[in-house]
Specification:
5 helices; globular; single chain; mainly alpha
Length: 108
């Protein structure tokens, strides 16, 4: 076993009988996961949340710091917020011209 495992769950629950739960329990002695749902089951923003969770963790923020950015009940607003964060990342933090040069393509 390799220390602690962290799992950020989109809908805030992990049933012990799921394949994912069994795999995580095999790999890590302790499992930390959120119980707060961030989005509705109809949301298409799961990957956006995952990207920003990883980005925050890489910057040393805790899972709770990530979760505290969002409402516990307003999933529409949460999806809007994560969408705005993604837009800001793309527009302000990524140097699109540099990305184009690296890929040897011309971008417009």
């Amino acid at each position: 076993m390799r220390g602690d495992g962290q799992l950020r769950l989109t809908f805030g629950f992990l049933h012990d009988s799921t394949t994912l739960a069994r795999l995580v329990k095999k790999q890590w002695k302790y499992m930390i996961y959120n119980e707060q749902s961030l989005q509705s089951i109809y949301s298409k923003s799961c990957g956006d949340y995952a990207l920003f969770y990883l980005k925050d963790r890489a910057r040393g923020q805790s899972m709770n710091e990530f979760l505290n950015r969002f409402s516990k009940h307003d999933y529409v607003n949460n999806d809007h917020k994560i969408g705005q964060l993604l837009k800001k990342l793309i527009v302000n933090e990524l140097n699109w011209e540099h990305v184009c040069r690296l890929s040897f393509r011309q971008c417009n």
